[in-house]
Amino acid sequence: MKKTSYEVMPNAQEKAILVSLVTAEQKMREAYDPEFSLSELASLAETAKVQVLGSLTQNKEYADSKWFIGRGKAEELKAMIEETGANTAIFDQELSGAQVRNLEQFLDVKIIDRTQLILDIFAQRAKTREGIIQVELAQLTYLLPRLYGQGKNLSRLGGGIGTRGPGETKLETDRRHIRNRISELKRQLQEVVRHRSLHRERRKKSGVYQAALVGYTNAGKSTLLRQLTHADVYVENQLFATLDPTSRSLKLPNGLEIVVTDTVGFIQNLPHDLVAAFRATLEEVCEADLILHIVDSSSKMMAAQMQVVDQVLEELGAHGKDRITVFNKIDLCPPEQADMLTTEGEFLKISAFREEDLLRLKERIEVRMTGGSRSFRIPADKGDMISLVYRIGEVLENEVDGSDMLFKVRVNHKAFDKIGYMLAAYDAVRPAEGEQGRDV
């Protein structure tokens, strides 16, 4: 039994033992680190305001169908619970309803798995109507097939982790009520999707360029959004500090404005029900013109975290979108570690608290947005065409050449795709090549 010291939270209602099962299959995964996963579970518990009293790890070929960690280890866990006075056991893996029931009857404490803990944190964080709908839908979808294993768990007094939101209704007694509620939530979510689609169509018609911040939870996305746009967003050093997406206007050095959207952070083993429920929100990533993948460069598990983000983006169908990897928190990295940071494609190393780094990021976004320049030779008497030149981007140079006007224009791709075809006859030079795959 591994003893671990955790921060004391005297006001915490829940007091828990963390339990992890390391199977042969998990050991074969290159990106899996059981110690990091357990440490992350402790952070999740702290975010849910749970006092962690200790942890227990079991190495086993495969999960026990009845006891998950095996009968012997379950007895060891029971002794640990009695010794510490814990009232909750939090498992780092997902449990079946039968395993929850068996462990709950044997240990006489509340049994929570990683998925339920994440769903509970989302229930705390959801503030908007859309967020609340999505969290409740994910919780109900998760709980429905496990109701027969949740009886004692859901009837415990005092609420607490695993029973917020829909857990406060008598879920175990009315499956039909839950199915009806799920149908109603899906209907409400379809309405949300319709509204979001309308907003996206308006943005497309107006030619607004949109960048989406994505990344592992606690990578510094909200901090970066606040520093870039001076947005009044909640920032805290904890997992899933922000849940509801936030969009703010950002003015680039060339004077053009874009929309930057902060999205919910990803995490390893992100519940599928949660991804499905939040698809309406996460689709903002798919609709963005540019993805800014924010990476915590100071994290020891940086590579694994980047892989998790790639997997979720692939699930969403946004893996092939235009992207810049932003290695954040570079000020927390030793110089030798910072020098080794690299990845495929275009990347940038910054600290969200350094003005010069924020300027470099804005300039990089600007280059991606415009992609280069075009030159046009337009007869001086073509006033409508000259006006159009100023509408498709930023005029860098202009001069008179006989009866013609020569323009060098940094092109806004969206505006050019929409109305630039009218200038095709006056296009004198191909677009200049933009930066590719190098950090500057």
Automatic annotation (TrEMBL):
Q: Does the keyword Nucleotide-binding apply?
A: yes
Instruction: Name the residues that bind GTP.
Output: 215-222, 240-244, 262-265, 328-331
Q: What cofactors does this protein use? A: Mg(2+)
For this UniProt record, give its keywords in alphabetical order, as a comma-separated list.
Cytoplasm, GTP-binding, Magnesium, Metal-binding, Nucleotide-binding
| Entry annotated with the keyword Magnesium | yes
Per its UniProt entry, which superkingdom is the organism in?
Bacteria
Q: Which organism is it from?
A: Paenibacillus naphthalenovorans
Family in the record: Belongs to the TRAFAC class OBG-HflX-like GTPase superfamily. HflX GTPase family.
Q: Name one GO cellular component term.
A: cytoplasm
Q: What is this protein called?
A: GTPase HflX
- Please give the Gene Ontology molecular function terms for this protein: GTP binding; GTPase activity; metal ion binding; ribosome binding
SUPFAM superfamilies (alphabetical): P-loop containing nucleoside triphosphate hydrolases (SSF52540)
Any one Pfam family match given in the protein's UniProt record, by short name: GTP-bdg_M
Cross-referenced InterPro entries: G_HFLX_dom (IPR030394), GTP-bd (IPR006073), GTP-bd_M (IPR032305), GTPase_HflX (IPR016496), GTPase_HflX_N (IPR025121), GTPase_HflX_N_sf (IPR042108), P-loop_NTPase (IPR027417)
Q: What does this protein do?
A: GTPase that associates with the 50S ribosomal subunit and may have a role during protein synthesis or ribosome biogenesis.
Assembly and interactions? Answer: Monomer. Associates with the 50S ribosomal subunit.
Q: So where does Mg(2+) get bound?
A: S222, T242
Compartments annotated for it: namely: Cytoplasm
